[in-house]
UniProtKB/TrEMBL annotation, chains A, B:
Recorded coiled-coil stretches: none
Domain of life of the organism encoding this protein: Bacteria
One Pfam family in the UniProt entry: GFO_IDH_MocA
Gene Ontology molecular function: nucleotide binding
Domain Gfo/Idh/MocA-like oxidoreductase N-terminal: 4-115
Protein name: D-galactose 1-dehydrogenase
Organism: Novosphingobium mathurense
Amino acid sequence: MDPIHIAVVGLGKIARDRHLPAIAGNATFSLAATVSPHDTGLDGIPHFASLDELLEQGPAIDAVSLCTPPQVRYDLAAQALKRGVHVFLEKPPGATLSEVVALRDRADKVGVSLFAAWHSRFAAGVAPARTWLAERTIEKVSIVWREDVRVWHPGQAWIWEPGGLGVFDPGINALSILTHILPRPVFLTNATLSIPANRAAPIAADMHFRDTAGAEIHMDLDWRQTGPQSWDIVVETDAGTLKLSSGGAVLALPSGTEHNEDLEYPGLYARFANLIRGGRSDVDIDPLRLVADAFLRGRRVSVEPFID
Amino acid sequence: MDPIHIAVVGLGKIARDRHLPAIAGNATFSLAATVSPHDTGLDGIPHFASLDELLEQGPAIDAVSLCTPPQVRYDLAAQALKRGVHVFLEKPPGATLSEVVALRDRADKVGVSLFAAWHSRFAAGVAPARTWLAERTIEKVSIVWREDVRVWHPGQAWIWEPGGLGVFDPGINALSILTHILPRPVFLTNATLSIPANRAAPIAADMHFRDTAGAEIHMDLDWRQTGPQSWDIVVETDAGTLKLSSGGAVLALPSGTEHNEDLEYPGLYARFANLIRGGRSDVDIDPLRLVADAFLRGRRVSVEPFID
C-alpha cells in the first residue's frame, strides 16, 4: 500500500519535538512537505511559506498535521478539507467550539478524515486506567496539574492571547484524560480563574466538577510551579485508589505500579493512519467544552503581572 | 386524554409574565403546583418552598417548568428526571454546556422528555424567515440587539454573576434565531466583551461570526440603550434583504412586511406537549455554545461600573 503523504504545517516546538519524530518512525507515513512562514524547513524536504502555496505548487499530499497556534487553525483545516486532504488537529482542536463543530460537519460531508488529537489519552497508563475504572464506583477525584510556564512555553505570546487558553493549554491534557477514563459524564460546577494583570488568559485555575452520579472532582491547575512538576490524577473508588502520574505515563493501582515508556505521538499517528484507512473521523470536543465552561461560568480574579 | 399536570419552579418575572399565562391558555396542561422559597404562590394552587418538598408531599406531577436562574437549574432538573418527571428548561438551559449535555444523556437513558426552550425561535416571523432563507445564498448578516437593562432586568443580581451571562441573557435570543434561520453552521471568529468594573458579566459585546460558506455575520449587543430599543436581524442574500425586527415578531421580505401577534410562550408549551406525548426530547445547545465561545475567545475590556 502506498504511504500516506503528509505535510506538517507549523514548525514550532511541538512539531519538531513530537510530530516530526513520530512521522519519521511510522512507515505508513511519508513526510512530503513542511509549511511555515517563519522557518526554512528541513534538509531535503520541500518547504513552503503557506498552505496555499503548497496546495498550488507543491507535491501531492494526502494529509496535513496542523501544528500552528489554534487561532489560525480553522482556515487551514477548511482549506485542506476542501481539497480532500485529511486533517490532524493538534490540541486544542480550535480556538472555539463552534469552529470545530463546523469542521466536523464539513469533514463528514466531503468524506475526509478529521482527527482532533488528544495526545495525553495515548499516555501509557491511560488505557489500563480506563479499563480498571469502568467497573468501579467513583467516590472522589483530585487532579493536580502544576508546571513552570517558563520551562514549557518560553516566549509563546500567542498562548496568553484570547483563544490561546493560557494555563488550560496544559490543563486540557488533564481534562482529556479525565473525560476518557471516568465511566460517567462530568460537568463543571464552579471555577476561579487567576488572570495576570497584563495578560488575557489565566495563569492558574481552581475548578470543581461533578459526575452524573454525584462524585466530586477537584482540579488545581497552576503555571507558577518551580522545582518539581506535578501532573497527577488520583481517583478514589470502592475498590481502592488509582493514581495516574507523570501526565498519564505512570499508573498505580492497589495491585502495583506500572512505569511505561512515552508512546503518545506514535500512538496518535497510528490512530490517524487507521482513521484514514477506515474512512472515519474522530472529533471529541468534550475537553474543550469543559474549558469553555470554565471561561463561561468561572469567577475571574486579577493576579500579579506575568513577565516572560 | 388526561391533562399534563405541571409545576412551575421559580416565580420570578418570566414565570409570572409568560409561563403562567401560557399554561393557563393551553388545555393540554393543568397547573398542579408552584415552587419558590421567596413567594407565597397563587390563590388556589398548592405551593411549596422547594422541589424536594413538592416531590415528597405534593400532588402527583408529570412535568416541571424550571424558571429559576440558570445557576441552580442542573440539580432541579436532575432531581425531576430521576423521578420520571418531564422537564422544560427556560433559556439559557444551564450555567454550563457540560451540565446540559449531562442532562440530555440522563433524559435519554430514563426515557423522559427534556426541552431546552428557545422562546425567540417561536416568534411569528422566525419560521417563515427560515423557510425563505433555506434556498438563498447568504451574503452578510447584521444583528443589532440593544436594550435598556434597567427596564428589562431591574435588580436581577444573579444575571451579573458568573453563570448569569450578563448581556448574553437577551443576546442568546438573537443567537437562537440566527442558528435556526441560517442554512449553514456558524462559528465565532472574534469578540470583544465589555465588563463593568464592578461586575462579573458583560454589559455589551461586539462579535464577528462566519458561516461555513464564508458569509460574515456581525452582532452588536448592548444593554446601555435608552430610548428606542432594537432587536433586529438583517440578512442580505442573492435574492434581496430579509429583516426580522421586534425580536422576530416582524418579518420584512422584498415582497412585503408581516406583523404578527406574539405567540412565543404558547408556541413553546404546544411544543413541550408534543414532545411529552411523542416520548421525545429537544435539547439544542448551539446558542449557548456560541456564547461560551465568546467567553472563551473574546477579548475583555473593563468599562465604567454599572449601578442598578
